């Protein structure tokens, strides 16, 4: 593995729950609880889990669009949790985000040219003429034409709008892109085109990706390693092929057995995921998955398993392996 680009340690985000006449704090939602992982230069780390598992909150915290409650985020050897707004702006040039819904994230009153120019203006990059040139070049890079520059977001299809979202993220030539469900709002036929574009751009610009999604099929396609989150914690992390071919955590096994395999000859042992996701405001004691796990033991109800390396590069948080 190459050098680390981003190191996350013991990251937490607790949202307060308030109630009563004086809006007193009466509890908290543990959206992200003790998350630790590293992203290496040039790789794609997929993060998967059901909705409400904390994956999107994690993505936003890495850019400090949401402030962490506790923990450390080190980007290129610099701790970013304590940076001032001004210092943070410099770092954000190198870390950009692609959102799920490009329509909601693109200003409907601005032309594509203005949308793409904006990050350059914010970071004080280039003269007006140079910025314009960069916008036209970037449109070509993401498979759009220069004639698209004067159009507005509503004049594009969903796939084209996501290309604009990707182009905007690339304008400052970042090192890390955090893509939060970037293809889940698109038709299946368009998803592959956008994923292929992301892969091509990764090679062309030497990008590192954190790819957040609930769809395990999509994540496998693009990721070198995959981390599985459950109720705000990472429960398994491994190389993509290892995770998909020999998952260890019962939650990962259940998620994978729900993914349809287009081969009528293929037989797999199905492990159904029963019960609803417990509330992060009141997570189960011990292993947070114990209320839905068919392999649950007594220790699981009282003691929280920690994420441990059980084989080289394969981390699991489960008492079956500890
Ligand atoms: Fe299941 Fe226990 Fe492992 Fe949790 S720790 S996943 S309850 S076996």
Automatic annotation (TrEMBL):
Q: Does the keyword Nucleotide-binding apply?
A: yes
InterPro entries, A to Z: AAA+_ATPase, ABC_transp_ATP-bind, ABC_transporter-like_ATP-bd, ABC_transporter-like_CS, Oligopep_ABC_C, P-loop_NTPase
Tell me the keywords, alphabetical order: ATP-binding, Nucleotide-binding, Transport
Supply the PROSITE patterns for this chain: ABC_TRANSPORTER_1, ABC_TRANSPORTER_2
Domain ABC transporter per the UniProt entry, residue ranges: 6-256
Please list the GO biological process terms of this entry: transmembrane transport
What's a single GO MF annotation on this record?
A: ATP binding
- Give the family this protein belongs to, as stated in its UniProt record: Belongs to the ABC transporter superfamily.
Name assigned to this protein? Dipeptide ABC transporter ATP-binding protein
């Amino acid at each position: 593995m190459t050098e680390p680009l981003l190191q996350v340690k013991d990251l937490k985000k607790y949202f307060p729950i308030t109630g009563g006449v004086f809006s007193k704090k009466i509890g908290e939602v543990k959206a992200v609880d003790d998350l630790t992982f590293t992203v290496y230069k040039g790789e794609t780390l997929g993060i998967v889990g059901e909705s409400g598992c904390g994956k999107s909150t994690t993505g936003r915290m890495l850019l400090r669009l949401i402030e962490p409650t506790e923990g450390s985020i080190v980007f290129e050897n610099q701790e970013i949790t304590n940076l001032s707004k001004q210092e943070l702006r410099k770092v954000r040039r190198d870390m950009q985000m692609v959102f799920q819904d490009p329509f909601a994230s693109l200003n409907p009153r601005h032309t594509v040219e203005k949308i793409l120019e904006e990050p350059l203006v914010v970071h004080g990059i280039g003269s007006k003429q140079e910025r314009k040139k960069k916008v036209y070049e970037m449109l070509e890079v993401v498979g759009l034409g220069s004639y698209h520059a004067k159009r507005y977001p509503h004049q594009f299809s969903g796939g084209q709008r996501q290309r604009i979202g990707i182009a905007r993220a690339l304008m400052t030539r970042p090192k890390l892109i955090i893509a939060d469900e970037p293809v889940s709002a698109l038709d299946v036929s368009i998803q592959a085109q956008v994923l292929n574009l992301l892969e091509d751009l990764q090679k062309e610009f030497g990008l590192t990706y954190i790819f957040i999604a609930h769809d395990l099929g999509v994540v496998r396609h693009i990721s070198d390693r995959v981390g599985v989150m459950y109720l705000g914690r990472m429960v398994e992390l491994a190389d993509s092929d290892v995770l998909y071919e020999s998952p260890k955590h019962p939650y990962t096994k259940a998620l994978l057995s729900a993914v349809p395999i287009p081969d009528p000859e293929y037989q797999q042992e199905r492990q159904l995921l029963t019960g609803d996701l417990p509330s992060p405001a009141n997570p189960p004691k011990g292993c947070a998955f114990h209320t839905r796990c068919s392999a649950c033991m007594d220790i699981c109800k009282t003691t929280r398993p920690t994420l441990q390396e059980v084989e080289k590069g394969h981390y699991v948080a489960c008492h079956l392996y500890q």
